[in-house]
């Protein structure tokens, strides 16, 4: 573990970012698989994080504003549930949502941001430390979908821990992966801890497809940035103009986002040749949608006890409060 101290005394950075070799191995394995796929966590380099922030402001992308509505509506209730805890946020992003919790709960003194995007993580923790001078911000740059051990710090030893995973990023995982992730999270927060998590709900396919394929093309740019990153960091030679973006609803309950080859072509990654046939897709991410009961069943399998769930008036989105089992 590498510890870097920022110039602000109430901000600490632990850099556990996966090495470049991990990116190369995952990219090669995904491109050689059938069908071709790529772990969605690699979408979030600095540029990818910036593009996703833009997506969250788009009219078609109902998820962010709807979740914010739920958080603001029930913030006092959430503050009572959470109390004087250490708040662990998975995927710190722009920190807009966590500010709702911090504003409603002045007892909170410890914030842990977990994100794979180092630049975004540092910026969000510095911004929070500036906005909330009483807050101790601990930034951990890591792949939070993998098992983690928190640093042994006084601020984390004697407080209950509440995980916060907004945005419905849980939908990027396969259902069996959701259970594994939630089990890891249950161990991280401990038997007295809890998890507040955003989960997108099932709805009309037309609403979903518009949310993930906006008219301004930002969602497409977000996906294409992954190819740009692979070219830049791994030395591949993707020709971006030979692919098109596609977002489509699969009736099994998920939106599927693909980059589809327009021609027969060969892409090089190191010494490897990756053949694409015309019409063949590279899956950049899935986004599963759940009913409230289906997600609560997964949470129970993972060792959480569903405590409370809140939705917006149109039942587009849900926010779940899960309690660890003693």
SSE blueprint and pairings:
Elements: E1 2-5, E2 11-15, H1 20-32, E3 36-37, H2 46-55, H3 62-73, H4 75-82, E4 85-90, H5 96-104, E5 110-115, H6 118-131, E6 136-141, H7 154-157, E7 160-165, H8 175-189, E8 194-200, H9 205-212, H10 218-234, E9 243-250, E10 254-261, E11 265-269, E12 272-276, E13 281-288, H11 292-301, E14 304-311, E15 317-324
Parallel strand pairs: 2-6, 3-13, 4-5, 4-7, 5-6, 7-8
Antiparallel strand pairs: 1-2, 8-15, 9-10, 10-13, 11-12, 14-15
Helix pairs in contact: 2-10, 4-5
Brief account:
This protein is an alpha/beta fold and 326 residues long. It contains 11 helices and 15 strands. The strands form 3 sheets. It has a 9-stranded mixed sheet with strand order 1-2-6-5-4-7-8-15-14, with helices on both faces. A 4-stranded mixed sheet has the order 3-13-10-9. It has a two-stranded antiparallel sheet with strand order 11-12.
């Amino acid at each position: 573990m590498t510890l870097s101290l920022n110039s602000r005394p109430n901000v600490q950075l632990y850099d556990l970012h996966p090495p470049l070799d991990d990116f190369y191995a995952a990219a090669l394995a995904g491109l050689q698989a059938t069908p071709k796929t790529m772990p969605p966590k690699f979408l979030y380099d600095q540029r990818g994080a910036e593009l996703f922030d833009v997506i969250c402001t788009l009219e078609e992308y109902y998820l962010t504003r709807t979740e914010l509505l739920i958080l603001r509506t029930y913030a006092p209730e959430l503050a009572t549930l959470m109390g004087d805890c250490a708040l662990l946020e998975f995927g710190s992003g722009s920190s807009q949502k966590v500010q709702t919790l911090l504003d409603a709960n002045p007892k909170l003194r410890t914030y842990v941001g977990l994100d794979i995007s180092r630049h975004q993580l540092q910026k969000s923790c510095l911004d929070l430390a500036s906005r909330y001078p009483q807050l101790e911000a601990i930034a951990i740059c890591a792949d939070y979908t993998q098992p983690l051990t928190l640093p042994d710090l006084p601020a984390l030893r004697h407080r209950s821990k509440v995980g916060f995973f907004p945005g419905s990023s849980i939908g990027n995982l396969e259902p069996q992966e959701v259970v594994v992730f939630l089990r890891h999270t249950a161990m991280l927060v401990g038997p007295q801890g809890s998890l507040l998590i955003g989960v997108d709900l099932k709805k009309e396919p037309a609403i979903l497809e518009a949310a993930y394929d906006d008219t301004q093309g930002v969602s497409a740019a977000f996906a294409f940035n992954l190819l740009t990153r692979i070219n830049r960091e791994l030395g591949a030679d993707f020709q971006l103009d030979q692919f098109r973006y596609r977002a489509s609803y699969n009736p099994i309950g998920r939106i599927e986002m693909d980059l589809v080859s327009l021609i027969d072509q060969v892409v090089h990654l190191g010494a490897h040749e990756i053949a694409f046939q015309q019409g063949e897709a590279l899956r950049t991410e899935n986004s599963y949608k759940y009913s409230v009961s289906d997600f609560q069943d997964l949470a129970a399998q993972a060792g959480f006890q569903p405590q409370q769930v809140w939705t917006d008036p149109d039942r587009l989105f849900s926010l779940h409060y899960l309690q660890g089992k003693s």
